[in-house]
Each structure stands twice: as C-alpha cells, then as structure tokens.
Amino acid sequence: SLCPGASIFLPLSWCLHPSPSVPGASILLPLRCIMALSEVHWDHQIPLPKLAPVRAKLTVALVALLCFINSYDGEFVFDDSEAIVNNKDLKPTTPLNNIWTNDFWGSNLSSNSSHKSYRPLTVLTFRLNYLLAGGLQPIGFHMLNIVLHAIISALMIDMFAILIGGLAYDEKDKIVNLAPKTSLLAALFFAAHPVHTESVAGIVGRADLLCALFFQLSFLTYCKAFNTGRGLFTTPNNHSPCTVILYSDVVRTGLLTRLALMALGGLAMLYARWRIMGTGPPAFTEVDNPASFAENIFLRIVNYNYYYSLNAWLLLCPWWLCFDWSMGCVPLIKAATDWRTAWLLLLWCVLIGLTSQALCSQDSQRRRTLTLGLVLLVVPFLPACNIFFRVGFVVAERVLYLSSAGYCLLLGHNVLKLVCVAVLLLLCVYVARCALRSHQWRTEQSLFTSALSVCPLNAKVHYNVGKNLADRGNTTAAIRYYREAVRLHPSYVHAMNNLGNILKERNELVEAEQLLSKAVSIQPDFAAAWMNLGIVQNSLQKFEEAELSYWNAIRFRKKYPDCYYNLGRLYADQNRHLDALNAWRNATVLKPDHSLAWNNMVILLDNTGNLGQAELIGREALKLLPSDHTIMFSLANVLGKLQKYKESEGFFLHALRINPNSASCHGNLAVLYHRWGKLELAKKHYELSLKLDPEAPGTRDNYNMLRRKLDQLQRSAP
Predict the structure, then answer these.
(1) Which of 197, 235, 591, 715 gives 437 a disulfide partner, CB atoms 3.0 to 4.6 angstroms apart?
(2) 408, 426 in Cβ contact below 8 A?
(3) Residues of the chain with pLDDT under 50
(4) CA–CA separation, 239 vs 391, rounded Å?
(5) Cα–Cα separations (whole angstroms), residue 534 to 257, 460, 544, 597
C-alpha cells in the first residue's frame, strides 16, 4: 500500500543515480528513495492480525508480563546473594561515589580479587530499589526486572520494523512500519523466549536488561536523527544540478562525520573502561572455563565452537536450561573423533547457508532482513565468545538476551516456511516454558534442584543443592551432595570447606580435619578454610597447630574479624587472657558490630575480677550496639557485682524486653533481686526462669534457698 508524500531513507544502502540535468554527473542517493513505498511483500502472509502500533506494543508487553509475572515474589537466589544481599554499595550509609570505583559485587576494581565486572548504573538501580523499599525486599527488585523486559519487548517492534523495512516517514513525520505483522511476530517470540528467564527472574540479570534497553534507545535515536534531512530526498529532480551535487557532498560529509564521531566515542569508552578496571583482565580458573586452558590450540578452537553450538541450541530448543554450566556440565572434546564435533559442523553449515542467502538472494528485502538479523544475532555475542579475551563461564544464558533478538528476527522472517498452526503452537510452548522456568527461579531450592537433571555431572550444581539444604537445616542430605561434588571435582575446595564445617558440627572432627587440610593444600590462600581448620584443631586440643592455622588465615586475609575472634577463644582456652583480649579487640576494630567479641571481652574481664574494666568495655559496646541483649545481660551481671543494683536492674529488664524468653536472664535478675533484698521479685523471676528451663544450672538451688528464707521470715513474723 502506497503512502503519498512519504520517503524512505536507508542510511547504509547507497546507489549512484545518473543526474538528469548534468551530463556525466551522478547523484549519491539512498537506494530505496528511488523505489515505490510499499510494505514488505511477505508481511501479509504472516498468520497474525495487523494491529495499530500502540495495540501491538501493549500485546507484546502483556505477553512478556504473562511469561514472567510468577517470579515477582521470588527470593534472592544464586548470584543475588553476593551482588545484592551482601553488597554494601546498596546501603544508604555507603557513599554514592563507591559505585564508580567498585565492581558489580562491591569489591574495589583495583583489587586482585575483583571480577572486573563494572556496572555502576545497574548497581545504582539496585540502590534505588533498596531506598524505595526501605531495605532488602525482593518484590521491588523482581518487579522492576519484569517491567524492563516488557518495555524492551515492546520496543523490539520498532527496532524490527526498521531492520526489516527500513526508515519510512509519512506526511506527519511519523515512522511508518512496513512490516507490521513480521515485526509483531518477532517481538512476540522475543517476549516469550525461555532463554531470557535468567536475565528476568534472576535480579542480577538486570545488567543484561539495561544493556538491551540502552542499545534500543541508542539505535532508535540514531535512526530518528535521519529525519532532519528527509525532505531533500523526496523529489531530488526538482533541485538544480548545483544544488544536487552540493547536497551529495553534504551527505558524504555527514556520513563520514557520524562514523568518525561514533568511532571516537567507542574508542574513548573502551579506553575509559580499560583504565577503570585497572588495565588488567580478571583472573579466571580452569574450573570457570576449562576450554580456555587447553594446551592444544586446535582443541581449544574446537571446544569454543562446540560452546557456540550449545548456545545456538538453547535458542532453538530452550528446554534444557541451567543456572550454571561449568564444572563438568559440558565435558571437553579431547579428540577430533568425538561425535559432538558434528554439532559444530552443523552450526557452521547453517551459518554459511544463511550468509550465502543474505549475500546472493535476488530479493533485496530478504537480503536486508537476513543480513541485519545475522548481525544482530552474532555481534552482541562476540564479547562472550573467548576470541578477544577469556571469559569466566562455559555457557551463560544471560549473554543471549540481546542476541536472541537476531534469532527472533530470523525466525519471524522464515515463518512462512512453517505451518501457521505450528507457529502459534511454538509461541504457546515458549510461553508455557517461560512460566515454568520463571517459577523455578523463585527459590534457590527449586532453581538448584532443577539443574540436577540438566547437568548431573556439574559439581557446582551438587554443591549449591547441598548448601541450600544445609542452610535449611537438613545437614544429612547436604553431606550427600557435598560428597558428590567432591567426587565429581576432587579439587573443589569450597565443597571440602563446607563439608568439613558440617562434620565439625557433628563432632566428626578427624574427617573434618582431613578435608580442611586437603583444601588448604590445594589452595594455600583459602583463608576461610584455614580458619575452619584452626577451629577443628582447637577442638582436637591441637593448640599449636590451631594457632598456626589462624595466623595463616589472617596472613591471606588481612581484615578477618571472625578469625581474630576464634583466635581469642583459643587463647582464652589456654588461659592467655591478655592475648585473648588483644585478639577480640582487633576483631572489634575491624568489625565494630562484632557482638561476640565485645561480649567475650566483658565476660573474660568479669571472670578475672576486672569489674571496672569490664564495665567500661560493656558501655563502649552498647554505644555501638544499643539493642544487643547479650551485652546488656553481661554488663548487668558486672553492675550487680559492683552493687549498682538499680542500673543493673535496668539493663536486665531492657534485655528481657528484647528477648523475654531468656531463662538465664530471668535467673540472674532473680539473683540480683535476691541480693538486693527484693525477695518477692526474686521469687517471681526464679519461677519464670524455671518455667522456661527447668534444668537451668544453679537456679533451682537458688530458688530453694529463697523459699527457705521466705518461710523463716514468715514464721518469725508476729
């Protein structure tokens, strides 16, 4: 259908058109400006209704919401714990400037342990979620991700329309969609593609959502800029020869200027990014990306290409989805005779076939769509392909978020080769799979267990299932999964560390020591394993070995308050009181809210008769931790011994308001009243203490002593 007065401008498709007024001269004109304006010829055959632009966008947005809305009330899962829950950059007390110098996980970019993932705008949105919700409420985080995906999916209609049909404007300077049905279908496929679940249902996937959104806005804004010179292309023959030749020079100059500006801007951003991350790439291990550590360059290339075929398969058949594809999930190809090499050959055959069609097809519209679809499929994936630098994963579904737009464009273009019913069925399957997968992302338990059937050889999957079970108190089942993780990956030090901790709690100290010793022998700078080994050795009364382990932990992690706390406990067990106090003081310097260290200092000073110093330490601690009932309890005991009964009573009562079911607090308050001579109140709190804990040590004896005294007083009364 023709649109009177409209013109089309395709910025990268140029032709030389003979000038009618200047013999031998040519005019540089956009290729499509000399063609009749019409819809893409295959568009009317798409099995969808032709919707108005606003209605089409609403339809796509609603489909996107339908696919992922059941993840709105999910928990913080997997990487959310480190990027959000434990990230201090989200808290209002942290200076806002920190997000520009720290990585995505809250570590300083200059640190050797930094992952070098620099996403300050994403962290800024997390911080905004935190402020609006007044804390870590996952609903707000999830809802923003879902809304962003709906917006991106709706904007895909405009982007696909331009990529398929070019830039076209009507007489009101509005962009005309020359492929309304094809762009709608491709956008629907994008909105409902299950491979997006990690980016939408996983909160850390917001980085990929924002990347896609800013790409769309940049692309659409760049295209809109061409509208400024649109009228000059409408009737070129009306201009004088000099005007036309002059304009062609202007067009050349404008194009070169734009390309130069974009090139300079891109190089400046790359340079700034390189400087910010410390001019060095992040350090990854063989576990993260085993193919990149293969010594044979041929096998390395073969495995990389096999990874590409796996990504292509996830786009084609997004049924086997997993939160992590490392650690044995994808075994390495070690010989050219491996049957899996057939998949990478098939991938390249398909890519070569599509490329040949894009270059050699007689249909210019088909050439355009195939070319731009392949570009949109391949180019966003290049940073993840291990060509320019080593990446820290084998397969990551989140990196396919923008690349999937190219796949959806190609799928929408080739839909005529499919039966209409099959197209609608495929769309319904996508929606159902999205709903199921986003439901699995609601909790860590369902997310991790869903991966067992996809990647049963992935040690990290078994590790995460075990960790989730341990966090929920099921240590018996957790042990089984941790052991399987160690069996699949014998050098998995984190699994050894966690398994050793559980065995320590179950008093299986010998095996715990063996596991933790093996962990630190594999990774000597594993500070947490050194500390846990020290705890086990302390329990085995191997005091010298325990002290050495603690100091090794501190050597590899300078600021380690928990290790100083445990070192203090070791010194206290050996009656090295001054060393214990110094260790606990170091813990509180490094972590001022370390309640256990403060409390142990008060108790140790109390037990050694240093009541005045114990009082000072207790008051100092409560200035930092005004609601800590354990410190109140310890300080109240000290004040009672100093015969400051009224003040001691106040701290006991305050502690009981916070923790009313503390048998020891009721019992010690009763002792205070007993000494103070308030016998009825003493009787009341003795009885409350015995009601809460009938076996409370000493309380029964004190209560009986009080009753005898009350009986004597009653008998002696006139």
Answers:
(1) 197
(2) no
(3) 1-37, 229-244, 246-247
(4) 55
(5) 65, 26, 9, 17
